[in-house]
Amino acid sequence: MRRCFQLFNFMLIFGLAVLALAPLCGEGQWAIAQGKGSGEPLKLPPPRYESDVSIEKALLARRSIRSYKEEPLTLNDLSQILWAAQGITEPKKGLRTAPSPRAVYLLEIYVLPGNVTNLPMGMYKYQPQGHELVKIADGDKKAELFQAAGQAPIKNAPLALVITGLSEKTQNPAWMYLEAGHAAENVYLQSVSLKLGTVAMAGFKEDEVRKVLNLPEKERVIYIMPIGKK
Question: How many domains does the chain have?
Fold first, then answer.
């Protein structure tokens, strides 16, 4: 009986400690704590659906930006960018922000952070269902990507997205390139709203980039999009 009482006291104290520390952790920190070392998805902050920038203003201001300030991006920034690229907008049917032929959804979005608050370096895959990241590689993968692609904007950007196409999911490979264009334009426009800059790059040796990212042969590397503050 005494042992049960001691166990109860321990569990009570532990629970109170967790409740006391929870406010000290932001959404991003809690997400990393949940997934770190466990292989579990890293939950992203929820995206917002309103801003002070109209679609017309975003279209007017959209430019390809190749140099960025040496300032970190936040998990909120990353969350919004990924939602714009491939986020779920109709949960019952799984429809997304960017159109896809026959709603097949032929793209994968990879995140290679260099300076994103509360997100360790490595390589992550975006999961639209659940709005989550899954870490698939450790180390400074963005630096390796820069060496493979040889594109200067990647080096100093706090973040690089890699958009790939799943050629085995379609008999018409042109579809995945069209879909990648839709997603990339969404990233451009969302970046304007967030006062960020980006550029869609396709001038690289695909085999070398695929090797660095350890991607299968049938997964085509379509775009690299470094992102940072203007």
Answer: 1
